[in-house]
Amino acid sequence: MTLYINCCVRSDSRTDRLARAVLAKMGEYTELYLPAEDIKPLSEEMLEKRTSLLAAGKLDDPMFRYAHQFAEADKIVISAPFWDGSFPSLLKVYIENIYAVGIVSRYSENGTPVGMCRAEELVYVTTAGGPYFPEFSFGYIKTVAETCFGIKSTRLVKAEMLDIDGMDAEKILLDAMNSV
Ligand SMILES: Cc1cc2nc3c(=O)[nH]c(=O)nc-3n(C[C@H](O)[C@H](O)[C@H](O)COP(=O)(O)O)c2cc1C
């Protein structure tokens, strides 16, 4: 099963259009539309609950439903526009929520993370109004996916310069869609 994690806030999102071109080559998928989910930043209360559930081995608690879904996906596509040099904070909140030790990752005896996710590939799809800099968006996702979650390969699909005067945004987007 391919999991499509959609973090595109705008209803006519160009990032989502580009992601659908990627997904069209992958067959069936399950979509998780993050703006419609009840996902909150971790509070002290949530952290304490999570810590005690993990210590007790109660991994079937509903709190871990997103973590299990992520860990069990065969392929993962994430779409998120380039916002403020990174991605919408909702995506970071989602990652906080799935990062449950014992489900998506565990620690080796010497303290390094060992990934527990099934996915062979994660594709990160983004669009930017100006030039795209990957350091704090794709760069972060690649590091956490490969180093912590054990996903073997990550790939960036992007279209940039879409909001710059004089650029043909539709052509840039279509070219990117045709090259996936
Ligand atoms: C809140 C916000 C922050 C943005 N920050 C940047 C930015 O830092 N750099 C940039 O090139 N474009 C930035 N943009 C422009 C978007 O990256 C661009 O319009 C993108 O194509 C939007 O994707 P969407 O059509 O999927 O919503 C920003 C747009 C918004 C709404």
Summarize this structure briefly.
By secondary structure, the chain is an alpha/beta fold. Flavin mononucleotide binds next to helix 1.
Number of helices: 6
Shape: elongated
- CATH fold descriptor: Rossmann fold
Distance between the termini: 20 Å
Low-confidence stretches: none
At the fourth level of CATH, the homologous superfamily is Flavodoxin domain
CATH class: Alpha Beta
Number of domains: 1
Task: Sketch the major β-sheet.
Answer: 5 strands, parallel
Binned strand content: 15-25%
Query: How confident overall, as mean pLDDT?
Result: 98
Level-2 CATH architecture: 3-Layer(aba) Sandwich
Could you tell me the number of beta strands? 7
Topology as a string of helices (H) and strands (E): EHEHHEHEEEHEH
Structural class: alpha/beta
Which hetero compounds are present in the coordinates?
A: flavin mononucleotide
Radius of gyration: 17 Å
Please give the share of residues in helix: 25-40%
Strand order of the largest sheet: 2-1-3-6-7
Give structural notes.
With 180 residues, the chain is an alpha/beta fold. It has one domain: Rossmann fold. The protein has 6 helices and 7 strands. The protein has helices at residues 14-23, 44-55, 65-72, 89-98, 138-148, 169-178, and strands at residues 2-6, 29-33, 75-79, 105-107, 113-115, 121-127, 153-159. It has a 5-stranded parallel β-sheet with strand order 2-1-3-6-7, with helices on both faces. A two-stranded antiparallel ribbon has the order 4-5. The chain starts with a strand and ends with a helix.
